[in-house]
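Appendix B. Chain record.
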Amino acid sequence: TIRTWLDVFPENVWGNFEKTKMMHRIRASINGKAIEAEFHFRPLENQDDIRNLLSAEYTGAWLNEAREIEWPIIEADLHVMVEASKPLAKVQPVLRAAGITPRKGR
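Structure tokens predicted for this chain:
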């Protein structure tokens, strides 16, 4: 949940969570290297959510409560990450699913 996220990445340390965009942009320096990352919180529950996902570019995803997500949504998520990482030859897409991994056709 966003509450848990902000417990781990508090706004006073990592920057403001943009509620209207449901996004947390983090800028930090780790071992002298500047990093910037955007974390988007998106519902993935129906066909409209899949269409919105397919128009995005993500190189990673965390699916919370994966056992509740239908397989076509996970396939769409994987497709988006693979397509987004193609121009970045050294970037490998990462998908993490919390909970039981869903069975195909579920």
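Further analysis of this model is presented in Appendix C.
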